[in-house]
User: Which sequence fits this backbone?
């Protein structure tokens, strides 16, 4: 499934960055790439929580071939045992960000062979019911950024979150640089 271009009513294809004060262990210091967002809810994956394994380590179907080296990430708190393959790349001619979500293994292999593409495996996903994300946005729980402005593979873990959040607003950069545990300040 390809993500649609974001519209005023949709954040599909955009990045959600958690507010530095968010304490929810599922979403604190996360970057979520939204694949779908409409009046019925939203769906995406956390792209900065690496599991520390590659697809080739989790099952024989991925042991050989281009997907064996694909990194695995915690995609979110919903259906944590479900594997979702996703990939993205920049279209050189238009400069558009192309997101392919919920790929079958054959399509993911083809994409993994493209040197301009990034392919990742996600365990679970992040989901919001009707109106839930909009309510959280009104409470400034999330900040939105376009993926076109960032190299999503340049950092991993909380470093990606800090880099993007810090580019949105200098005050957010200060908050993002605070330690999670104030006693370690």
Assistant:
């Amino acid at each position: 499934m390809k993500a649609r271009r974001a519209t005023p009513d949709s954040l599909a294809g955009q990045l959600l960055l958690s507010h530095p004060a968010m304490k929810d262990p599922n979403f604190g210091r996360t970057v979520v790439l939204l694949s779908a967002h409409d009046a019925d809810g939203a769906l995406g994956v956390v792209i900065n929580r690496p599991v520390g394994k590659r697809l080739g380590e989790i099952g024989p179907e991925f042991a050989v071939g281009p997907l064996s080296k694909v990194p695995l990430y915690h995609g979110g708190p919903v259906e944590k045992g479900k594997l979702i393959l996703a990939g993205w790349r920049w279209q050189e001619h238009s400069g558009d960000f192309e997101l392919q979500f919920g790929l079958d293994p054959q399509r993911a292999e083809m994409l993994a062979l493209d040197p301009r593409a990034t392919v990742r495996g996600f365990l679970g996903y992040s989901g919001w019911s009707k109106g839930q994300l909009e309510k959280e946005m009104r409470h400034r729980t999330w900040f939105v950024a376009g993926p076109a402005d960032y190299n999503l593979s340049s950092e991993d873990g909380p470093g990606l979150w800090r880099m993007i959040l810090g580019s949105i607003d200098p005050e957010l950069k200060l908050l993002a640089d605070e330690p999670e545990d104030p006693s370690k300040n």
The domain at 15-184 is CATH 3.40.1740.10 (VC0467-like). The mean pLDDT is 88. Residues 158-168 form the longest helix (11 residues).
